[in-house]
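Work Package 3 (structural annotation) set out to generate three-dimensional models for the target panel prioritized at the project kickoff. During this period the team completed the workflow that converts sequence records into discrete structure tokens, so that structures can be stored uniformly alongside our sequence database. As a representative example, we reproduce one entry of 204 residues exactly as it appears in the project archive.
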Amino acid sequence: MHVRYAFIVFPVAPTCRVRIGGAVVSLAPARLIVVMGVAGTGKSVVGQAVARRLHAPFIEGDDLHPVANKDKMRAGIPLEDEDRWPWLHAVAHSLHDAAERKGVAVGTCSSLRRSYRDLLVQEAGEPILFAFLDGDAALIAARMAARTHEYWPGASLLDSQFATLERPTADENVVVLPITLGIEQLAERVVKAAPHLRSFRRKQ
């Protein structure tokens, strides 16, 4: 008796080497960009700036949380993984659907754990470029104290977010950005990390 084995081969996305802020990184071209990081790093304003530069639709990840998650966050209760999985599915599919219509999409999502980022890529069904807004906890806490957010009761949950954070590693499709830079500087670095999308923009 002969047994045949079928192997499924998944294509590997080609990479390009890009110089970002003095460092050269290898990145896979992606039409989805997710601005990630803990609360208070400026994900929304940076994401919107990137979307403007690329003439891309912008997806605000917080808007896709179910009501139960929003209630927890307003009450200062940290989310559990069981709370996050449906939200991550919604973010991934919203980005993919937007890119299907426009050819590119930019969104925000804290994406704190590696498993969350892997799930986003899996559910989107295509590569994602993550733009990690990296900053010192004291600086972020000071920013949080000076702002208000619908789903965030001040800086009370910041420690929880830092405890959850798994910093992206070199094998991920990520560009790391210091939040000490200005918004437009950060946006420009993200756009530089996706030169194929700049070509797309010129054709609009």
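The CA atoms of residues 42 and 195 lie 23 Å apart.
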